[in-house]
ABC transporter ATP-binding protein
Amino acid sequence: MVDVELSSVGKSWGAVQVIRNLDIHVKDEEFLVLLGPSGCGKTTTMRMIAGLEDVTSGDIRIGGQSVVGKLARERDIAMVFQNYGLYPHMSVADNIGYPLRLRKVQVDERRERVKSAARKVHLEDLLERKPRALSGGQRQRVALARAIVRTPRLFMLDEPLSNLDAKLRVSMRAELKHLHHEMRTTTIYVTHDQIEAMTLATRVAVMHGGRIVQLDTPENIYKDPSELFVAAFIGSPPMNLLRGTMSIGAFRGAGFEIASLPASLGGSVTLGIRPDDVALVPGPDGADIVATVFATEFVGQSTLVSIKAGDDLFCAVADANRKVTIGETVFLKLDRSRIFFFDTANDKRLRPA
């Protein structure tokens, strides 16, 4: 069994603290995704686990053994990077087999293990080609095969799909999902792409400002965000966020009032609701917001309808067959059971009594 445990891990460069008291326990065979915007500390966290960066404080244990102070090559970790890291003068087979060559594995065994790894990522017909003759998706599969061939105890992937086009990202996500199911190797994956995180992960660690703001399953991250940053970062289209005040069961925002809300909440509040939970209704009866359409976006199976709420855009998802035009008056009703509340002062989730 190979689990990974970070205990009170911190990282500083001089007076600048980039990672703050990080505690994570990655379970054996888990696929954990570190998700967050650029600069949040996710890649630094991965590099500390891999031994490519030293920790400033705390402890990292892999398989129950502390690895602080150990070199990267002593940790039995395979990494896949954003830029593939292939040797242009080597064939695909030689690129895949290079880690085995360094370990002086016999030629016959090396050849068989290269073929086996290539089969897992569907490269068996490309083994004699050079990287320049491959597409971006094929190069990424070579990098994956090179990681697989070592049969490491831990996989680490740093933004591996960010250089691929949208169609290739979809197919490569499926490849990675199937590969993890097949190999059952503990995996830590870094990305800023929430779709990758939500589709691949067993659990997601949402990072912001050098700390983990929520660590949970993709479903719980989406349905039960712990604070405003998570609510705003997760979801496409993003959650609607309206600033206002609560008093006696009513939320008052910029030019509108939403009634029949929990009376236990009061003061400055940010109201959040996902566009999927905002319905267009035929008329003003029962509507929470009456406004003119600011913009529309046809996205295939639905149409996104945006209005202006003060300085903010507020979005609803309408059926694709519903014809809506800019400047038209629309009537919006919010699903009360799907409304979230956040404290405007500290962004923490407010849960009505």
